[in-house]
Amino acid sequence: MNRMLNEKKLFLLDIDGTICKGTQLLDGVHDFLEDVKNQDGKCLFITNNATRSVSDYKVYFQNMGLDVKEKDFVTTTIVTVEYLKKHHDKEMIFVVGTDSFIQELEKKGIQTTQDPMDSSIACVVISYDNQLTYQKLENACRVLTTRDVDYIATNPDLVCPNEFGFVPDCGSICEIIEHAVQKKPRYMGKPDTAIVQFAMKTAGMLKAQALLVGDRLYTDIACGNRAGIDTALVLTGEAIREDVQHSSYHPTYVFDSIAALHKEWKEENSTCI
């Protein structure tokens, strides 16, 4: 297949490690987003990070100097809400997550509790939680050990990039729980393709026009592979170039950064004029 970057009009962009690290916008991102917009393309931000609501992300990006709208974001929270409404509508959900994540679920009509003794619990949901305590872990283990309930998690990411390096993400939290209860959750975010399917439907573009850009092989690139769209691995987050050789997930392109992707995309577009 002759894949050409100049064909790409829809960029599905991971956030942590791809666009930014913590509150630090990565070099070249602003110029890339502006250039795509000026070329009548579209960027959607797809993320496994459920600590922020869509409105939170809008403010977060604006504080980094980016002109964005709420409709530009597709989060794993959206996919999680869809699952819960389909399988556990009007049922009680035990949640380990940030206050923002819980508020977002409740705003969408999901009934939540953090009381492990609540007899009406039908499902346990685990998310990235930078407010995590040992008591929260113990409570989740109590529910999963003492009753037969559904068990899901927002995303399998093991670490989350920040300004100084990495911190444990949802996948690591779930691994801690797994050692205690011998149970694994069903993950809602990437590499599951639901988040990409939602984004593609929102954008109204063809698969050939889309490029998924991310820093993780086992979530971002795996998701693109499963969804049947081209992918670009950027080396500003978790993965390093040597990882590609040993992975079963194969990116279409590998770039040092968004800035390097931008440069090649511009060059191909100028050649085709």
Structure, described:
With 273 residues, the protein is α/β, with parallel strands linked by helices. Helix content is 39%, strand content 21%. The protein is built from 10 helices and 15 strands. The strands form 4 sheets. The chain has a 6-stranded parallel β-sheet, with helices on both faces. A 5-stranded parallel β-sheet has the order 7-6-8-9-12, with helices on both faces. Helix 5 (134-146) links the parallel strand 8 (121-126) and strand 9 (150-153). Helix 5 (134-146) crosses helix 6 (170-181). The chain is elongated, with a radius of gyration of 19 Å.
Major β-sheet, in short? 6 strands, parallel
Q: Nearest-angstrom radius of gyration?
A: 19 Å
Mean pLDDT, to the nearest integer, reads: 93
Give helix % range.
25-40%
- The SS-based structural class is alpha/beta
Would you report the number of β strands?
15
Approximately what portion of the residues adopt beta-strand conformation?
15-25%
Q: Treating each run of at least 4 consecutive H or I residues as one helix, how many helices?
A: 10
Which blocks of ≥5 consecutive residues have pLDDT under 50?
Answer: none
- State the separation between the terminal residues, measured CA to CA: 22 Å
Strand order of the largest sheet: 5-4-1-13-14-15
Shape: elongated
Topology as H/E string?
EEEHEHEHEHEEHEEEHEHEHEHEH
List keywords for this structure.
alpha/beta; single chain; five-stranded parallel sheet; 273 residues; six-stranded parallel sheet; 39% helix; elongated
Write the layout of secondary structure elements.
Elements: E1 10-13, E2 20-21, E3 24-25, H1 29-38, E4 42-47, H2 54-63, E5 73-75, H3 76-87, E6 92-96, H4 99-107, E7 111-113, E8 121-126, H5 134-146, E9 150-153, E10 159-161, E11 166-168, H6 170-181, E12 186-187, H7 194-203, E13 210-214, H8 217-227, E14 230-234, H9 241-246, E15 253-255, H10 258-271
Parallel strand pairs: 1-4, 1-13, 4-5, 6-7, 6-8, 8-9, 9-12, 13-14, 14-15
Antiparallel strand pairs: 2-3, 10-11
Helix pairs in contact: 5-6
